[in-house]
Write a structure and sequence with these properties.
alpha+beta; 6 strands
């Protein structure tokens, strides 16, 4: 009967050792993930913003205003979409200078299409 007790004790010890080992591995993985997230927080944040931008490029003027002066696509209060210029006094203007007062959303212009010079566009 002593033989069975020692075999059971060895089995229980093995089970407990496996559980401890599993917890150590889990703790290590969680710690590594946390450290990586801390180290790369800025990059992760930038990537998350870029993903959001790609999923829905329209930005509310209430949430964020463009930093750079230049051309943008704008969504107006009357549900029209057009190209507009953001000028130096932070005003939205049509390309020929009429000021917009009803811009609700904006987005960067998409890149120009790639044109194959051999095909002539």
């Amino acid at each position: 009967m002593g033989k069975y007790k020692s075999e059971n004790a060895i089995q229980e010890l093995g089970i407990k050792l496996g559980q401890v080992h599993g917890r150590l591995i889990t703790d290590f993985v969680v710690e590594m993930q946390t450290n990586l997230e801390k180290e790369h927080k800025a990059e992760i944040s930038t990537l998350k913003e870029r993903i959001e931008e790609l999923e829905n490029p329209w930005v509310s003027v209430k949430e964020k205003f463009p930093i750079d002066i230049g051309c943008y696509l704008v969504f107006l209060k009357n549900c029209k979409i057009c190209m507009a210029f953001l000028n130096t006094d932070n005003g939205w203007c049509e390309m020929w200078g009429q000021k917009f007062l009803d811009v609700k959303y904006w987005q960067k212009l998409p890149p120009s299409p790639a044109i194959n010079q051999k095909q002539g566009g």
